Amino acid sequence: MNEKLRNIFASVLDIPLEEVTDELAYGQHDKWDSMSHMMLIADIESNFDIMIDTDDIIDMSSFAKAQEIVAKYESE
Q1: pLDDT of 75
Q2: Of the residues 40, 42, 52, 56, which has the maximum number of CB atoms within 10 A of its CB?
Q3: How does pLDDT run across 4-59, given as a tens digit for each residue?
Q4: What is the phi/psi pair of residue 39, to 5°?
Q5: In 10 A of CB 44, how many CB atoms?
Q6: Cβ-contact 57, 44 below 8 angstroms
Q7: CB 43 within 8 A of CB 67
Q8: Which fold would CATH assign to domain 2-74?
Q9: Domain Carrier, which positions (predicted)?
Q10: Is the pTM of this model over 0.90?
Q11: Alpha carbon of 10 to those of 55, 62, 64, 73, 75: distances in Å?
């Protein structure tokens, strides 16, 4: 899951895979803005076949948090 998620982040944000670390955070990288955030959500939902609720969309503030959120939905 982590590698798949890393690839989604790298692709959507158009950044090298090496930049996708747990420390990658919304607003701290110039390519992760509100528009790319929604594109990330759409790609994650599509690739993992999940539907992320609004609170989790808002909470997804870092790559580390995204991993937690996706894991939560995959276990449901």
Answers
A1: 81
A2: 40
A3: 999 999 999 999 999 999 999 998 999 999 999 999 999 999 999 999 999 999 99
A4: -65, -40
A5: 22
A6: no
A7: no
A8: 1.10.1200
A9: 3-62
A10: yes
A11: 23, 13, 14, 21, 24
Q: Please state, in angstroms and rounded to a whole number, the distance separating the CA atoms of residues 33 and 61.
A: 11
Residue 29: CB atoms within 10 A of its CB come to 17
Evaluate whether 2 touches 67 at the Cβ level (below 8 Å).
yes
pLDDT of residue 45: 97
Q: Tokens 């929604």 belong to which residue?
A: 38
- For residues 68 and 31, the answer to whether their CB atoms sit within 8 Å is no
Q: Among candidates 5, 2, 75, which has minimal Cα distance to 40?
A: 5
* 16-34-55-2 Cα dihedral, nearest 10 degrees: -10
CA distance 65 to 60: 6
